[in-house]
Each structure stands twice: as C-alpha cells, then as structure tokens.
Amino acid sequence: MRWIWIDRFIEFNSGKSAKAIKCLSMAEDHYARHFAGYPVMPACFILEGLAQTGGILVGEANAFKEKVVLAKVPRAIFHREMFPGEVLTYETEVLILRPEGASVSAKVTVQGEVTVEAEIFFAHLDQSRSKELFGESNFVFTGEFRHLLERMTRKS
C-alpha cells in the first residue's frame, strides 16, 4: 500500500518550486492512535508530505527519467503541532539539481504561519541500477502517477 500525503498541488513551477496542500481530517486513521484524546498529525507524516512534494518536483525536473529516492533530512524544525481541521501548505524549492541528486528547501505553513522548516536531499538512481536494486514497479513515479500529477497541476 502507498500513502500519498498530498491532497493536490496548488502551484507547480517545473524544476524550481512547488506548493501542495493537505487538509487534515479527523476521519484519518492515524488520529485514533496518535494521540487518543489529543489528535495530532504525526511529524513523520508531515515530513513525508514535504518529501513527496519535493520528490515530485525533482522527478518532474528530469521528466521522471531517473528514480528519485529520499536520501536524508539533515534539518527539520517543528514550531508547533498540527491538528485536524487545519490545512497544511507544503512549499518546496529546488536548491541544487545535479545528475546524482538534488536538494530542496521545504516548509509547511498553516494560514500563513510557518510551522515546519526543513532541508531534504534526494538521490537519483539510473534505471538499470534501480531495477537491479528494487525491481520494476516499486516506485511512485509510474505512468499512472505522471497522469495524476498532470491532473493535479491542471486544477491549480
């Protein structure tokens, strides 16, 4: 099963920057366990939403020719918790884009307030190496996903 932590893109500037939103709803399963009686969006899911936004931006910059994998998150600062009913805006900007990988700056805002700041590194795997290591259909950036991206960016 794959989890997508983006509801839709609201801006997409190829190879430069992207903004996506995630509407937090009490109907999401993770709130029952994190934390019962005090529902908080898990920080790892917020980081994953930022990584998906940045990873899609980086993958699209290379026409999805290479597989993009999260390499590391060297910096992540959380200024407060996020709760059901809030709309998270994921903002990412490409800092470095090289054949071996990319770096993005990222932040989350809620009604204009910066709630998370991060830097995320991605690695590029060439097609032959990624098939050898991970198989053919193990990644998000498939033809179906490209179609979804096109639909999401058309609506913005």
Summary?
The chain has 156 residues and is of the alpha+beta class.
Q: Which key features would you list for this structure?
A:
Thiol Ester Dehydrase, Chain A, 6-stranded antiparallel β-sheet, 156 residues, alpha+beta
Sheet with the most strands, sense and barrel status: 6 strands, antiparallel
- CATH architecture descriptor name: Roll
- How many β-strand stretches? 6
Uncertain residue ranges = none
CATH topology: Thiol Ester Dehydrase, Chain A
- Tell me the helix content: 25-40%
Give the averaged pLDDT, no decimals.
Answer: 87
What can you see in these coordinates?
The protein has 156 residues and is an alpha+beta fold. It has one domain (8-134): Roll (Thiol Ester Dehydrase, Chain A), CATH 3.10.129. It is 26% helix and 38% strand. It is built from three helices and six strands. The radius of gyration is 16 Å and the shape is globular. The two termini are 27 Å apart.
